Amino acid sequence: MLHRLSAPTPLRLCARASSLVKPAPFVVKNFSITPLLENMSDTKSTDMLAKLFQRSHVPDMTGRPFIRTAACLIIGDEVLNGKTQDTNSNKMAKLCFEIGVELKKIEVISDDVDEIVEAAQRLSHKYDWVVTSGGIGPTPDDITYSSLAKAFGDEPLEYDDETLRRMSTGIQHIYGTITESENVLRARKRMALFPRGSEVLFPTEEYWVPVVRVNGNVCVLPGIPSIFEALLKGLPPYLRLDPDMPKPIRRLIHTNLPESMISPLLENLTKMGKKDGIRVGSYPKWKAGVHISLVGYDHMLIDKYTQMVVEEIGGQPVDV
């Protein structure tokens, strides 16, 4: 008996668990494969899969360079044409701030081999750590893995057995036995086809989806925000972070005064900040005053600058 699924996705079949009773075995033959990695952050789903999957062993980081700078490469026509709003770069920025890595570049490019090759090579050479988002599903426009293979040594693509195993386990756990057509099976297996020599990391118990590290410093993540975030949060143990690198401190002060009235103060603070290592920024809110941002590494200096702002313009510290 053939059961046709509404807008099915192979990755959803693999990665998303359900609290429902497993259906009887069914056959999946020819259905349209849609953009992947959607709506898979259900709490019950991830709790169930957490019992199936384990995190990867953390490798020995000795000899690897410290990660002090980073770049985020968003890959997808859907972002550039306005269909999808990028939120993953914001998650990347927040994580970098938390772990003391300076995010230097956020770039958005199309699903184009030459674009991906050029950007990946340039960013990998210039920054210590690069995270990509998008283009790793089973559809023809998912070309991130093959493009990165071309970018770094023109390596052939190889199936990763552990990823295939986890993928299959996820499907069977949710849907029982599924008989797939050759076309569907081939498309699904593309999501486990990585450049030879890549590191395959499983930094979270929530999903079978791996993080594939190419060229030593390029980490490939999916585009769907919930999975991107889960994988990203699990990555720090797999990065060599400098233990002596101080974590940045951010302080926000709000004032009801318009930005034009506090411009002289901001100019003075900016000049002082260059000497003291304090970055000063102002972020006006329409008809609601201004947030003044202070970012630095010295608690005493941050407190000093905060007090100056409060006294000069009657500002009020805001919880970050």
UniProtKB/TrEMBL annotation:
GO biological process: flavin-containing compound metabolic process
Any GO MF annotation of the entry: FAD diphosphatase activity
Classification via Gene3D superfamilies: MoaB/Mog-like domain
Annotated ranges, domain MoaB/Mog: 71-242
InterPro entries: MoaB/Mog-like_dom_sf, MoaB/Mog_dom
Protein name: MoaB/Mog domain-containing protein
Biological source species: Malassezia sympodialis (strain ATCC 42132) (Atopic eczema-associated yeast)
